[in-house]
Design goal:
The protein has 2 domains: 40-187, Helix Hairpins (Orthogonal Bundle); 205-339, 60s Ribosomal Protein L30, Chain: A, CATH 3.30.1330.60. The protein is α+β, with helices and mostly antiparallel strands and 341 residues long. 13% of the residues are buried. It has helices at residues 14-105, 109-204, 235-254, 283-300, 325-331; strands at 211-214, 217-221, 262-268, 308-312, 333-339. It has a 5-stranded mixed beta sheet with strand order 1-2-5-3-4.
Amino acid sequence: MARPGRNQRVIDYWPGFVDALSTLVLSIVFLLTVFMVAQFFLSQQVTDKDAALLKLNRQISELTDLLALERVNRKNIEENLALLGDTLAATQAERDQLKSQIDGLGGTPVDSGTQMGSLNKDLDAQKQISTRALAQVEALNQQINALRRQLAALEEALNASEQRDKESQARIADLGSRLNVALAQKVQELARYRSEFFGRLRQILSNRSDVRVVGDRFVFQSEVFFDVGSAGVSAAGKVELDKLASALVQLDGEIPPDIPWILRVDGHTDKKPLSGAGQFKSNWELSAARAISVVQYLVTKGVAPQRLMAAGFGEFQPIELGDSDEALKRNRRIELKLTDR
């Protein structure tokens, strides 16, 4: 069976599916993030409301206890006042009886006058006691009215707090909805620009067999940019990076500034350990240095530094297992991924 030639192109539909799945995952992550932020602010609002309600309930409880105590005192005073009224009525009845007796006797005016004076003194004392009792009752009535006004003010403040809480919740819901719509639009716009960027790179690099599309990223064999064991970009690698830089500069001018995006450059090596005699002591250092070299060269070609990120993974993220030369070669790579911050 004949094997396809090197230059024969094979149509791969997987990148399109992967782009769609990536967009879906980003949308879900975004929605979860917005939900968590809304939950956080809502929990803050609920916590503040609960604290205010607890404080108001405590004040209402204290006022209720005070009102109950004042009611008991008022009842006692009213009972004392009733008792004093009864005593006063009895005293007046006794005075009238004595007066009738004095009028009937008519013979001992001195003794009757003395007894009458004593009775009048007792009557005046009872009147003074009644006056003080009435004054106390009036003072208690004023205190009760003041407590009622305070309770009314507290109820009004509580109702106003509940109304503000409802309005705050409505504003939070409205802001969350608008934020969801805005972020979803930004995600869709970034996905569109990322698809256009990948399309341009496919056209630029379509004739290279050492460049592949894996998922949502472009994979370059390390030999495209670097010599063996080196982190300096080779002359041939600079030619390829010039094409990439031109596409990035053009893309940066097309994407609106309010859409955050970066090009992540990941360095990977095979699992063969380094000798330790060279510049790099480990594959991790070599992979990081290669990613940084690519980023630095792109900056010299006009790509904005804030649009670039470099990361080194050493041999710990292989895309093919095994010890064959082909597997080791495929794991030595530079990956480019356009993503949001």
